[in-house]
Amino acid sequence: MKKRIFIDYLGITAGSFLIALALTVFLVPNKIAAGGVSGLATVIYYLTSFPIGITMLVINIPLFLAGIKIMGMSFGIRTIYGIVSLSVFTDLLQPHMTALTDDLLLASIYGGVVGGVGLGIVFRSRGTTGGTDLIASLINYFTGITVGEGLLIADGVVVALAGVFFNLEVALYAAVTIFITSQTIDVVQEGLNFKKGVLIISDKAEKINQMVVNDLNRGITEFEAKGGYTGDRKRVLLCIISRSEVSELKKAVSEIDQEAFVIISNVHEVLGEGFTEIVH
Fold it and tell me: Which residues form the DUF2179 domain (predicted)?
């Protein structure tokens, strides 16, 4: 338990560092205010020269306190740690780091990737850096708007401010960064080791079942279903295989039953026996 907690806080620390790095070497020097509290802090920085890290901390603390008062301690100590870590790292790095590029497209892409990796690590460590998710939760509480819509509103307002105080082009690049960040977060959380989920509907399910177990050495789950049109009872097989096994499976199923109905889809992460160990 203590080891898991230590690893989580180590992850939050590393993730916060990467987010701060993305801000100081890609986003802030190019005035890319990519939504959220960090984006708002970037706008304020260029208007007042007030340190970005302190600004984020000043904005996040009342949001966090409001969240506690309204919704209880659901955000917890990890949120406080994430907020403080990101603010400290940002102000420590900024005086010593220079922009790696002045190309807005490169800055928006790499800023989104590095920041997204950082956020993904923080989220996988069951933490948060506050900011937009706190705002979205408060919007949801007071208005009933979904958290997803709240995130869009919060980020949209910041991007709009960037368009007003900087220029429209910078605001458009900020939108690119937000999109790339969200996609990168998903990759980090779900992993790159994609598997294939296969559903097979066949009158020869027993033979296919044996083939998967004996030839592919994969587990398989069987359940009953009823055809919506015919009303006939069908046996449905479900199995998870690697990408390299797809061709072999399709060929084997075709040889057993050419009338089989097969659905193959991407599976981002598989936990359990034979795959990734479940971490508590």
Answer: 218-272
